[in-house]
Every structure is written in C-alpha cells, then in structure tokens.
Amino acid sequence: MKVYQKSLRIHRNGMSRLDVVIVVLVLTLLVSLASPWVLRLREQARQTACANNMKQLVAGMRAYHDTHASLPPAAVWDVNATYSLALHESDRVERISRENWLQLILPQIGESDLAAQFDSTVPIGHVNNEQARTTWVGEFKCPSDTFHREDSPHHFYPVVGEDQYIEFARGNYAINGGTHNYELTPPSTQGPQGDFCHLVMSEEPRRYEMWGNGIAGINKSFSFDDITNGQSTTIALEEIRSGVHELDPRGVWALGQVGGSITWGHGVNGDTFSPNNQDFRADDILRAKELHQAVGSDQIEALGMPTCSYVDRNQQSTARSMHQGGVNVAFVDGSVKFISDNIDPGLWHVLHSRETPPEELSDWELLADMSNFAEASTTRRSSLMDIPHTYTNSFGMKFVRIPAGTYEMGLANNDRNLGSPICPTHEVEISRDFLISIYEVTHEQFAMAENQEIESASDIATLPITNVTWYEAQTFCERISKANPNFLYRLPTEAEWEYVCRGGSTEPYDWNLTRQPNDQSGDAAGITPWLPLTPVGNYPSNTYGVYDMRGNAWEWTHDWFDRDYYQRSRKTNPFGPELGFIKVVRGSDWRFIGEPCLLDYPMQPPWKKNPFVGFRVVCEPTDSSLEDPK
Known about the structure:
Residues 42-345 form the DUF1559 domain. By secondary structure, the chain is α+β, with helices and mostly antiparallel strands. The protein has 12 helices and 21 strands. It folds into 2 domains: 49-286 and 314-342, no CATH class; 382-507 and 519-621, paralog of FGE (formylglycine-generating enzyme).
C-alpha cells in the first residue's frame, strides 16, 4: 500500500527578527506615550487621597465645634513657661508649646487612643509626650510628599551646638492662622502694617493671646459666628510640606508652631504671598541659619522650600505641596479645592480672612486662575484743560493745581531679582493738570459730609480722619460730588499720588531711618521714633504746596493692588487694575525705606479700618465756566 505523507517542509507561523524589532519598537512607543498618562493618574489618585484626608480633618473640627461651641485654637502656649511673656520671641518652643489644633480634635477623628497618650499638664517637649508626638499617622500625610517618611522626623535641638534633641513625627496639614501682616508692631505713622495682627500680653492675670485674620490664633479660638465670610469661602486647613532636613521645623503635626502645623502671615503684607511661594526669603522659621548651613541655600531653593536665612523665629509660613502647580485647601464647610500657585495674591489673602464680606467672593472661582487683571479705564473729564490754580469748595477743602508731567515711577530692580511690586521703574505720564486737596480730609469735613457736626474748636476737628474703610472714603467722595454738582471728587490714583509726593523732583529722597534731632519736616514713613497724628498743615508743604505726603496719616488711593502691575501698566494716566481684592495705601514716595519698601506692609482690604489710614481727594471740574478765585 502506498502511503502518502505530508511534506516535511515546515511552514513556520512565528515571527521573524524584523517582526520582533518592530513589535519592540511599537511597544516602546506605546509605553512612552502611556507613561505620562499613568503618572498623571497616579498623581490624581494621590491628590484625591490628600483631599480626603483634609475632609476628615475638617469634619473633626466641625465636630469639635459642636462640642465646645468654638473651633480649636491653632495652639495653646504656656504663659508660665518662661519669665518673659513675649512667647513669640522665645526659641524654647518645646517648653512653651502645649496642645495644638490637631491634638485637640484627635477624639473627633477616631484617634482617641492616641489622644490619651498626650499629657496636657506638661509641655509638648516633655518625655511624657515622647511616644505620642513621635507617632506617625498615615492620615496626616499627603501621599505626594516624598520628604514625609517615618524615618525622616524633625529633630529640634533646644541648644544649638549640643547633641540633645527632641523628636517629632512629620505632618502635611496646617490650620489657617491667617494672611495678616506677621509683624507685631502696632500701626503708627511710621507704618500702618496693613491687615495687622493682634497681640495681648498682661501680667495680672498672666495672659497671652495672638491672632490675625484666620480661623484660629494662639490661645485664641473663634466660633462659626465669628466668621463674617461664608463657610464655603473661608479656608480652614491647607497643605504644608514636610521639612527637607531634620532641622527643618516645617510640617510637624504635633507641634503648635507657625510652619509646624499653622500657616501664618502669608498675605500681601509680606514676601510669602501665595501658595508654594519661591521668594528666597519666603518662610521665616526657627533655626533657619543652621538649616542653610546644613543643606545649602541653593539646594533649599532648588527643593522649592525657601526660607529666610537671617530670621530665627517661627513667624511666617505659607501653604506648600508637591502636587504639580498648586495646593489643596479645605474650607470651613468641609469642601476641598485645588488652588493654583498663580492665584492672584489679593484673592489668596481674602480667602483666608474670616472678616471678608461674603459678597466680595461671590464669583471668586471664576477669577482663581487669573494672575493678572485687565487695566482699568480712565474716567478723567475732558474739561480739565481749564482749571484754576487754587480752589476752595463748600466744605472748606482747599485744592491746588498740579501741572501735567512725566516721571519715573517705582524702584529700580538693579538686577537683584527682588520680585518686588514696586519694581521696575517705569515712565508714567500725567497728561493733564489736576486739582488735589492740599490737606488730608479732616474729621470736621468728614462729619459735614455725613450731616453731622463737630465743634470747630474740638481737639479732633482738624486731625486727619482715620479708621475709615476705602468704601467709606469712596462714599465721602460721592456725597461731596452731589453737594457740588459742577465737580467730581474721587480718590487719587497711585500714579497721581506718587507724582504729587515727589513734588517734581527726579532725585531719590534723602531718607533717614532714625529721626534727626532738628527734623521739622513731619516725615514719618519708616522713621523711628514715630510721630503722633497732628492737625493738618502743621508741617511744611512740599514744592507743589501739598502737605503731609510723607507723614501724618497714610492714605487710601483709587487703585486695586496687583504685585505685577508695575511690569505691565500703561504709560499715560494709569488707573490700576480693573479688578482686585486689596486696595493700595500710600505714605511715601515709594512704600517705605530700606527693606520694607520691597514688601507691601501698607496694603489692605477695602473693608478694613486702620487707626492710621485716612485719605485725600482729587477734584475734577465738570463745568468749564469755573473761574480762578485769584
């Protein structure tokens, strides 16, 4: 029998070397394309986990409020820990610090056993609290923070140069202490301090309280009723990063200190005015000098954790995270939102303030991603070409004509990378003459506009009116405009104000930090000792015949504040940004003298009052028939 067999030739259905190479290339391409997507998914998951941690913490704070009728204080400091009551100046934080907000809400977030381990009768640095303060808690960690590890605690050395240290576990969440000015010097003619902080110290009974515009202070608590701002628009908690070295005290969950578990003083009145702020002087923390020596200043900045090397005090710290482009913040109502690093500093400031009127933030989310607001349009009247040299209105307010001109506004950067809102110098043209009040508005004039009376012989009648909001100053302008229908009264723009203050001079003003014995100028901004408020016209006028531009009360201007505005303002008659949340306050030809002139201590929200901030006005004729009284 003949058997037919299949061919022995094998038909291979496998892949050739070329096929393998092509497949490898395709897979490599797919992996390279998918990797960023996978990484984004992972980061989104970490960001979501972080947000969930914050929701749990705010729920605990709200439960604490239900029990105690107030939110927890940011921290409890022991008034008997040191001889001096100036606890904010002490470097013995392990002695003065007791409970902080996070310890106080432990029972409300399911950590009763951990809460029981703390001994509240002794300081946080006491050995009795060692086990509790070194406990690592997963819910206190943002998964994106690679510096927050169980094996990277904070070591606080009570005495620099010695080996003994006190250990603390890390944390990533801080209570909103506020965006007020961190300076504790009270407002004065030397400096108004803007949105200033409050400090109470007394010996009998021994008492210490420190608070700003946030939802919690040191030895100070607030209730929901104290939050003028809505609960959905007031920040309660925000992220902070764990320190980049054992000496770095930032991000320590059980330590009731600024930077450790409290954000503080990170608004427009300083140099850490936004989340993840990268100004080289941004955070002010204890042992910063030693941290710079251990890590290196360049490396600290490269890690995105700048701190001022010459400040040795926990007094200023902003929100920080390792998420791309921003931070998570939790509001009092428990909602969590991701805030861009590029948020307008003014908006960042007022979102942290419990005092912000709710109507100011009705559309804040539409503006949250806008870092620069559009330029405001000018409203100057066309009839300004024909105005008198001097003028006195029915309220007894005297005005003088300021000639049109051009000048260099602001401060030269000089390649110092200052990042200052008063840099760079830029040419400004005031295109037409205008009238400005030679004095600041007085108590008597302000009362007349409100149909009230003050005895002309009264001690306060001719003092500049202060403790008025920007809105009240604006209302004054509207009232006197109605009383004098041929005139429009308004606040001067910042450019007009500085132009008048300089008095036509192109030379830098010769400032002295300390008042000279024979100084009769009345100049006060930045000068020690400060002068009291005095009746208007008590000191000599400048070359334009205008009084108290560098002294007496600080003054509201028309403009919204924007830190970048000098870099993009128009040349002719700039009117400031169209929108904003903070108003410009002026009191010298720049802001201040020395280092403070690079910051913005005077700026403040338009609804806030200050005992040393008043105003003067510009008068614009609306009828060309106005004649010169001379």
